[in-house]
Specification:
- By secondary structure, the protein is α/β, with parallel strands linked by helices.
- The chain has four domains: 99 residues, Glutaredoxin (3-Layer(aba) Sandwich), CATH 3.40.30; 202 residues, 3-Layer(aba) Sandwich (Rossmann fold), CATH 3.40.50.11540; 84 residues, Ubiquitin-like (UB roll) (Roll); 94 residues, Up-down Bundle (de novo design (two linked rop proteins)).
- The strands form three sheets. A five-stranded mixed β-sheet has the order 2-1-3-4-5, with helices on one face. The chain has a five-stranded mixed β-sheet with strand order 11-10-14-12-13.
- The longest helix has 18 residues.
- The protein is globular.
- The C terminus is likely disordered.
């Protein structure tokens, strides 16, 4: 029998342990910083602190992503009762200097210091990423010390399934995987479904080029996702869940599996959770990296051990999903919002964002910017604020040209719409989408037909091949784009490209093919002159 855990007692013990140290050195140990050498950097801190005999006074903590990936490895030195100091681009030599100067002498190593007051940090609003960079994701005690699993305790002891679903509905939470469907409505559909078996799936199979929001959440705060899934399971009447994660995310898989084991040991997963009558089991399923498996029917086929190919809907998964049973699929970021909503209330969450787009959104901010990395911002913030305040502007004195949102399914937003609020409706009005959170910034040197060709090549390679429009249409569109970018195309080729966009968009089986033309259509809408200038006739006419 699992032991009955006292969350308050665990939190108190961990808080006392942390307060017994005069300083915590938080070393980013996310995939991005690990690839830049943060493992060796953390080892240097540990060895230096031990050599100075300070291991009882200073705690070195591996954490999840701190956001500023372009300047990693990042380290936060947080003396008890004082403001934290952030260091960037920390290698082992700099780590030795920080130990000697800052940790021993109390002198800040100014050349490598990064102010915590810069807009990159201050303009963010962190809900999903509140623990990222603050806790060791491999220790459940640190999660519990920051209020972890209290929302689950509240849900099981003070709320009913109906009231939980209503709370999610009232919060205005919408699916963060891209579609933006109201989460509370989906939860109620599964709750009302009549079946002896129901399943939950967390979709962690993000595959957009340059996107790593879900990976970071799973790496930095795996218990936040697990807690959200258990609450969802109780609310909809499901007792088994799957975390579907792509094999290219080994660190996320490792930390999720470790977190599941820890949760089971502490009666937060398994039978009679926290002494209640509710039981819930959870397991990780690893995908093979097919982009199409982000589509929910292909994802379910993959979990069942079949080839990941989409099927026509309806019926939708909440009616007929895994092994024919009603199933609910939520994006990882969506589930990471659940515990804060239950803990702090729907009204609190709904007070953030816009009238129809509530809460925050996590973006992987990449491209031609001074500051790139992972950010979490309130819905309704403008692209201008993201680019020039948080991102620090375009380097090299170049000018902003476009922002590509939504990955291969999205569109490009030009400079004249830089003040557009980032929310579902505003982006859709510009023929783009929020997507899962990829945000690529381009400057005046970028060719928009080349951008469209890049995304079309991606869709062409990732098509599952089941339906003809996507299988052959993406190939033909790519060939036309290649012809255009090489200056070998005619006006007839451009007309054929537009015709193919309409055909593939309206006749493909699933979202991959239906949205594959979007980058082409949006660049044609806002940057048609770049296509015309590349046409053989266009060169003559514009001479």
């Amino acid at each position: 029998m699992p032991r009955q855990v006292d969350l308050n007692e665990m939190a108190t013990k961990e808080q006392q342990l942390q307060s017994s140290h005069r300083c915590r050195v938080l070393c980013c140990s996310s995939t991005a910083c690990l690839s830049s050498g943060s493992g060796a950097m953390r080892q240097t801190f540990e060895e230096g602190i031990t050599a100075m005999g300070l291991e009882e006074q200073i705690q070195v903590v591996p954490t999840g992503c701190m956001g500023l990936c372009s300047q990693g490895p990042v380290v936060k030195v947080h003396p008890k009762g004082e403001e934290e100091i952030i260091y960037h681009d920390v290698n082992p030599e700099i780590a030795k200097s920080i130990v000697k100067q800052h940790l021993v002498k109390g002198e800040v190593d100014v050349p490598h210091m990064l102010s915590a007051d810069i807009p990159f940090f201050t303009r963010q609003t962190k809900i999903v990423l509140a623990n990222a960079g603050e806790i060791n994701p491999e220790r459940i005690e640190e999660y519990i010390a920051r209020g972890g699993y209290q929302a689950l305790r509240k849900a099981l002891s003070e709320m009913t399934p109906e009231s939980i679903c209503q709370e999610i509905l009232d919060s205005g939470l919408r699916g963060r995987g891209g579609a933006g469907y109201p989460s509370g409505l989906k939860w109620n559909l599964l709750r009302e479904a009549k079946s002896e078996r129901k399943y939950l799936i967390a979709n962690g199979d993000e595959g957009d080029p340059g996107a790593y929001m879900d990976r970071t959440i799973m790496e930095a705060d795996p218990h936040r996702v697990i807690e959200g899934m258990v609450i969802a399971g109780f609310a909809v009447g499901a007792e088994h869940g799957y975390l579907y994660v792509r094999a290219e995310y080994p660190l996320a898989i490792q930390r999720l599996e470790q977190a599941i084991r820890s949760a089971k040991r502490n009666n937060l997963l398994g039978k009679n959770i926290l002494g209640s009558n509710f039981s819930f089991n959870l397991e990780v399923r690893i995908g093979a990296g097919a982009f199409v498996c982000g589509e929910e029917t292909a994802l379910m086929a993959s979990i069942e051990g079949r080839r990941g190919q989409p099927v026509l809907r309806p019926p939708y998964p909440t009616k007929r999903g895994l092994w024919g049973a009603p199933t609910m699929i939520n994006n990882v970021e969506t589930l990471a919002n659940v515990a804060p909503i239950i803990e702090r209330g729907a009204a609190w969450f709904a007070s953030i964002g816009t009238a129809s787009s509530k809460g925050t959104k996590v973006f992987a901010l990449t491209g031609k910017l001074k500051n790139t990395g992972l950010i979490e911002v309130p819905m309704g913030i403008t692209l201008h604020e993201i680019v020039y305040d948080i991102g620090g502007g375009i380097p090299g004195g170049r000018s902003f040209k476009a922002a590509q949102t939504g990955g291969p399914s999205g569109g490009c937003i030009p400079a004249e719409h830089l003040d557009t609020p980032v929310d579902y409706e505003s982006l859709r009005a510009l023929n783009s989408i929020m997507g899962s959170g990829g945000l690529v910034i381009m400057d005046d040197q970028d060719s928009m037909p080349e951008v469209a060709k890049f995304f079309m090549e991606f869709c062409m390679d990732e098509s599952c091949g089941k339906c003809v429009p996507c299988r052959t249409g993406t190939v033909q569109m790519y060939q036309l784009l290649d012809k255009i970018t090489q200056g070998r195309a005619s006006a007839a080729d451009l007309a054929l490209l537009e015709e193919l966009c309409d055909l593939v968009k309206n006749t493909s089986l699933c979202g991959l093919g239906q949205t594959a033309p979007n980058p082409v259509l949006s660049t044609l809408q806002y940057f048609r002159h770049e296509y015309l200038n590349l046409l053989k006739e266009g060169v003559v006419n514009h001479a």
